Amino acid sequence: MRAEIQNVVDEIKQGLALLRRHLDWDVSQKRLLELNNIAENPDLWNDPQKAQKLMQERQKLETAINGYIKANQDLEDSVELIEMGEMEDDQDVVAEAEAALNDLLANINRQQIETMLSGEADGLDCYIEVHSGAGGTESQDWASMLLRMYTRWAEKAGFKVDVLEVTAGEEAGIKAATIMIKGENAYGWAKTESGVHRLVRISPFDSQARRHTSFSSVWVYPVIDDSIEIEINESDCRIDTYRASGAGGQHVNTTDSAVRITHHPTGIVVQCQNERSQHKNRAQAWDMLRARLYERELQIREEKASAEAASKTDIGWGHQIRSYVLQPYQLVKDLRTGVESTSPQDVLDGALTPYMEAALAQRAYGTEGDAPVDDLV
């Protein structure tokens, strides 16, 4: 077998091992058996919402297990064909089997991505919050660039974007903004973007054209439905109303329609101003608070499972997850995975999929033993 084909075989075997590990093979098979037994119960559809959720879980699990089994069989068949073709000096058979192996590797990569989006909340819509850090106009302009980047990414991915709240900066940019991304697996894709993002560039606001470093933070959390119960004691919350700001209709700056809710036990603050009605903004803000508390619980579970303390940190040096350098050279580098791009404009135009895929793989499969990634100067 040619060395390059042997490398493909080795990659497929490694991918299959990762899939089996992430599936937790024995647990998954046991769970599928349980779901098959539940599906045979005629009383299941007495609760249609619960039944639909269970059937979706069953379908997803069955697809993953069958896909793994088929991939293993396809690997064995292709390797046997190559060995047979080489013995009989039949280059057509060898070429056909090699093409099948390359297709199988691509399929394994697709399965890995699908498996990485199998978390409890991954299939849900999501909120993305952007907050400027210290630095005034410079960091507020950077926050507006990030907001545009995520909006462009979502649109390119076929998601729908709703702007819920934007707090404009004094001179340019934004102090904070919240958008809702709607679409299948929106949260699953975007969840690894939470963290501090660093920009290095020649400031357009500096008359001496000096290089500036700016920071903004991004926070991603899922939009939850009524089937997920989150208890909130209203006495633990402070509700403030204020006049909406920024571009908008006639209601902007005329009525106290915007709503801000502060949850004292956790320090979580949410706000909404996109609706004309204070009542609608209040309802949306409560939904956002429930979602933030649910995301916080998911994060706590993940921290316990991985024995890591990955909490929300200061918006500043030493906490960034990604650096975007526009001068003196052009490079975007993720400090968790090492993924780089020499075309920052493409990234700022929404080309985020490679970064998201790498971060998802790291979260799903781990990178134990990897050297730490150095930041850009």
Number of DSSP helical runs: 9
- Percent of residues in beta strands: 15-25%
Low-confidence stretches: 248-252, 305-313
Tally of extended strands? 11
Main beta-sheet annotation: 8 strands, mixed
Mean pLDDT across the residues is 87
Which descriptor suits the 3D outline?
flat
Q: How many angstroms does the end-to-end distance come to?
A: 45 Å
Radius of gyration: 24 Å
Strand order of the largest sheet: 2-3-1-5-4-9-10-11
Q: What is the N-to-C order of secondary-structure elements (H for helix, E for strand)?
A: HHHHEHEEHEEEEEHEEEHH
Helix/sheet category: alpha+beta
What is the helix content? 40-55%
What does this structure look like?
It contains nine helices and eleven strands. It is of the alpha+beta class. The strands form two sheets. It has an eight-stranded mixed sheet. A three-stranded antiparallel sheet has the order 6-7-8, with helices on one face. Strand 4 and strand 5 form a beta hairpin. The chain is flat and about 80 Å long. The protein starts with a helix and ends in a 12-residue tail after the last helix.
